Amino acid sequence: MANKIVVGAQWGDEGKGKITDMLAETADLIVRFGGGNNAGHTVIVGEEKFELHLIPSGILYPEKKSVLGGGVVIDPVAMVEEMEGLLARDVSLDNLYIAETAHVIMPYHQMFDQLEEKRKGDSKIGTTGKGIGPCYTDKAARRGLRMVDLLDEKRFARKLEKALDYHNLLLEKVYGVAPLTVNEIMEEYRPFIEKLRPYIVNTSLLLNKAHQNNEKIFFEGAQGTLLDIDYGTYPFVTSSNPTAGGVCTGTGMGPTTIDDVIGVTKAYLTRVGEGPFPTELNDEVGTFLQENGQEFGVTTGRARRCGWFDLPILKHAVRVNGLTEIALTKLDVLSGLDEIKICVAYQHGNDEIDEFPPDLENGEPYKPIYETLAGWQEDISPCRSYAELPKNAKLYVEKIEELTSTPVKTIGIGPARDEAIIR
Ligand code: GDP
Ligand code: IMO
Ligand code: MG
Q: 23, 252, 342, 365: least buried by Cβ within 10 Å?
């Protein structure tokens, strides 16, 4: 028995979907613990490509349970769309479970997300516009609606009316847009709620019972460590805790039930949205990584910003998540480079800083100090054992292991399920 967390070690899009899908083969339940449809997880099985936003990547194994924990925020319209998309491709939803305590993204959350980004202008966060931040804001402000509230029309109407008392003031007086009515929202959501109703259960109970029965649970992270509201590049973060600590609050499982934490780490770095990025490359190497790595967002289609591997970030991720191992993805993307750089510390004014600072925009810029390694030219995607990798690729992997003091146990050498080396 080993329950594992798969968490993003950087700014998201590290390849969590692929790693979860690969490792889920040995699990009984696959669980999302936070975030919402801001996530976009790509899983490639044979000729088929799946892009999942809310539903755990484990859904592609019909016999395994897929669970959305209470820490997830759910847009009923997006959820049903995703479910129907999977059904149309003959993916079974018989083993899907949704937490009754998960908060619901309401139409006004999406409106506020987009209106607020527009209002901020140049200082915008670059959110996905899915209503994630405003939904978590309402959860913390104790005026949110949960899945269970939607199951009873009277309760739904009562809670929504209270929520709208507040939100309509903002819509009208702050943003100057038309208010919403209880009826129009209930009408819009009713057919979606009916489709979701059979899946809504007490998932904390379900998970703890499974654990007592020695079933194996995989927790699939969304976003990444640097997007964490507490440990990320605040305020350019998401509004939840995608780090390992979020698993307990986001699923109702105690910390003693968890055995391993796998940090999914891209062999270089990408970021979508605004915010500081010390190793960002605005040159031909950046373009090479972008094109070779097909770095376009799954959720918004935005081009991802690219840069070199950043060690202070990884050491921070190892620490705040308690990583027990690294899954290093997209190593194949680096093939063809003459040299590869690793940022080992930052120059900040007169200081050399080798730990990730709480604020990357504090005074002087944090300039990367690089260690340069030799690249390799060979296509590594046919390799299926560590020994087959070119010498310089192995040196790069071993350098990351040495600098982070964490073993790299899985290496991604292509997007497909079997394109990986397990050590
Ligand atoms: P996630 O959000 O962490 O699940 O990652 P995304 O799916 O948003 O982005 C990762 C992208 O890289 C997807 O298009 C994957 O198919 C792809 N991918 C994952 N692992 C590898 C790998 O080892 N090599 C290559 N070339 N692509 C990979
Ligand atoms: P996956 O699970 C990459 C980013 C957005 C923005 C910031 C806040 O696919 O790795 P939000 O809509 O959450 O309020 O946006 O967070 N962001 C992601 N970036 N991958 C993700 O998820 C992301 N989810 C949110 O681009 O910068
Ligand atoms: Mg993604």
A: 365
Q: Is the CB of 12 under 6 A from ligand 2?
A: yes
Could you give the residue range(s) of every CATH 3.90.170.10 domain in the chain?
A: 265-422
Query: Has 165 been annotated as catalytic?
Result: no
Q: Whole-angstrom Cα distance, residue 268 to residue 289?
A: 8
CATH 1.10.300.10-classified regions of the chain: 104-196
pLDDT tens, 169-184?
A: 999 999 999 999 999 9
All CATH 3.40.440.10 domain ranges in the chain, comma separated? 4-100+199-260
Question: Is the distance from the beta carbon of residue 130 to the nearest atom of ligand 1 less than 6 Å?
Answer: no
Long-range contacts of 140-146 (CB under 8 A, 24+ apart): 144/103, 144/104, 145/103, 145/104, 145/106, 146/100, 146/101, 146/102, 146/103, 146/104
For residue 96, give both structure tokens: 């899907």
User: Where residue 355 falls among pLDDT bands split at 50, 70, 90?
Assistant: very high
Contact at 8 Å (CB) between 85 and 53?
no
Spatial CB neighbours of 190, under 8 Å, sequence gap ≥ 6: none
CA distances (Å), origin 417, targets 24, 61, 404, 411: 11, 13, 26, 12
**84 phi and psi angles, rounded to 5 deg:** -70, -35
Q: What pTM value is reported for the model?
A: 0.97
Please state the atom number of ligand 1 nearest to the C-alpha of residue 49: 16
Tell me the H-state helices in 255-356: 284-292, 311-321
Best residue for ligand 2 mutational test, from 223, 236, 237, 243 (most atoms within 8 Å of Cβ):
223
Q: Are residues 269 and 14 in contact, defined by beta-carbon separation less than 8 angstroms?
A: no
User: pLDDT per residue over 38-71, tens digit each?
Assistant: 999 999 999 999 999 999 999 999 999 999 999 9
Domain 104-196 has CATH 1.10.300.10: yes
The string of pLDDT tens digits covering residues 214-249 is: 999 999 999 999 999 999 999 999 999 999 999 999
